[in-house]
Amino acid sequence: MSEWLGTGLQNRSHQFESGWNLFLIRSSVRCIVIAFHCFFY
Fold first, then answer.
1. What is the pLDDT of residue 24?
2. What span, in angstroms and rounded, lies between the C-alpha atoms of 20 and 13?
3. Radius of gyration of the CA atoms of the chain, in A
4. Half-sphere exposure (Cβ direction) of 29: Cα atoms closer than 13 Å
5. In what helix (H) or strand (E) does residue 40 lie, and over which residues does it extend?
6. pLDDT at 11
7. Nearest 5°: CA angle at 14, between 13 and 20?
8. What is the C-alpha to C-alpha distance for residues 36 and 14, in angstroms, rounded to an integer?
9. b/e map of 3-35 (b: 16 or more CB within 10 Å)?
10. How much is the pLDDT for 16?
């Protein structure tokens, strides 16, 4: 039971981390694109 709970918590934290990393990557790419447009237009 405790092993199952531990792996469930690990999976959840891993999903959260990958989602957060994806969010950070998307927002940084958006900032770069906006800066690119501002610089060239």
1. 92
2. 10
3. 18
4. 6
5. helix 2-40
6. 75
7. 90
8. 33
9. eeeeeeeeeeeeeeeeeeeeeeeeeeeeeeeee
10. 80
Question: Residue 31: what pLDDT?
Answer: 92
What residue ranges of the chain have pLDDT lower than 50? none
Question: How far is it, in rounded angstroms, from Cα 30 to Cα 33?
Answer: 5
Q: Which of 32, 18, 37 is nearest to 10 (CA)?
A: 18
| Predicted TM-score (pTM) above 0.70 | no
Amino acid symbol at 33: V
Tokens of 34: 């906006």
DSSP state of 41: -
